[in-house]
# Entry
Amino acid sequence: MRNTAPEYGPNWFTSVMGTGIVAVAITGLPFDLPGGHVVAVAFWLAAVGLLAAVCTVMIRRLRDDAVLPLRHLYDPVLAHFYGAPPMAILTVGASTMTAGPTIIGPDAATIVGAACWILGTALGLLSAVAIPYRMITSHTVADDAASGGWLVSVVPPMVSAATGAALVKHLPEGQFQETMLLACYGLFGLTAVAGFLMLNQLWHRIIRHGLPAAGSVPTLWIGLGFLGQSITAVHHLGEVAPGVAGDYGHALSMFALCYGVPVWGFTMFWLALVSALTLRQFRDGLPFAPTWWSFTFPVGTVVTGTGALAGETGLTAFAVAAGLLLVVLIAGWTAAVVATAALFRGAGQTQPSPYPSGPPRLPGHARFQTS
# Structure
C-alpha cells in the first residue's frame, strides 16, 4: 500500500470522533465490562487531547494560510467534512458526561457537556445548511460523485439530538424541558430526512457506477454513523419523554422501539454490505488515508444504538450483538491508528499533490467539476 503524506483538513477531526465514541460506547453497554470504566476514561482523555491537538494545528495553519478554509469549502470533497468539527465537539461533550464524572465530578462534567452541546449544535446546524447550499451554488456534481462523505455535513444535528437528551433533566421543569426535548426531536428529523436522501444518492452511485476510488471506499461506512446515531437518538429521547412531554410522552417512548428495530435491521444489512466491499477492496489494495477513521465513529454509534435496544427490550440477542460490535469498533480504531501512524511516518517523503490540477480556486473562478 502506498502512503500519502497527511494534509490538514477538517477530516482530521474524525480522529477525535472515533476516539471519543469508544468511551461513549463502553459506558453505554447493556452489561458490565470488567475494567470498562477505566478504559472509557482513557479514551475520553485521549479524545480531549486529540481535540486540543487538532485545534492547535488548525490555528497554526490558519495563521500561515488564512484562506485555507475557503479553499476547503470550495472543494467538493473536503467541504462535507466541515461537519466533523461540530461532531468532534459533541462527542467530547458526550464522553465527558459519561466517563468524566468520576474524574472531574458530575457538576463539572455536566457544565462541559452543556457547553460542548451548545457550540457543537450551532456549528452543526451551520454545516447542515451551508454545505448543501455550497453544493448547489458552487459545485458541479457529476452523476457518480456521491460518497459517504456527503453524510458528514448533515449528521451533526442527529448527534446533537442524541447527546441533548442527557441535558433535558438538568433544565427547569415545564416549558424549558419540553422545549429542549422537542428541539432535539426536530434535530433528529432534520438529519433523518436529509440523511436518507443522501444515503439514497450513495446507493445510486455504487449500484450504477461501482465502487469509488480505493481511498474513498472506507467512507461507505459513514452511512452506519447516520443509522446508528438515529437509533441512539430516539432511544435516549424516548427515555426522558414520558416524564417531560405529558400525554404524548409515552407515544414518543414507543416510537424509539418502532423506529429503532426496523432501522437496526437495515443497519445490519449496510454493515454486511460495506464489510464485504471493503474486504474486496483490501485484497486489491486499500491505501492508508484519513478515511480509515470511517471505521470508528460510525461503528461506535451502532454499538450505542444496539445497546440501547438491548436496554429497551431486555433481549440477550441485542446485548450479545452490542458486545460483538464493540470488538469491531476496537478493531476499527486500531486500524485507523495504524493507518495514521503510517501516514505520518511517510510525511517526510515526496508525495504527489492532493490537487493534481492545482488547489481549488476561490469564488470568481470556474465552478468545480467532481467525478
About this structure: Strands lie at 139-140, 368-369. The radius of gyration is 20 Å.
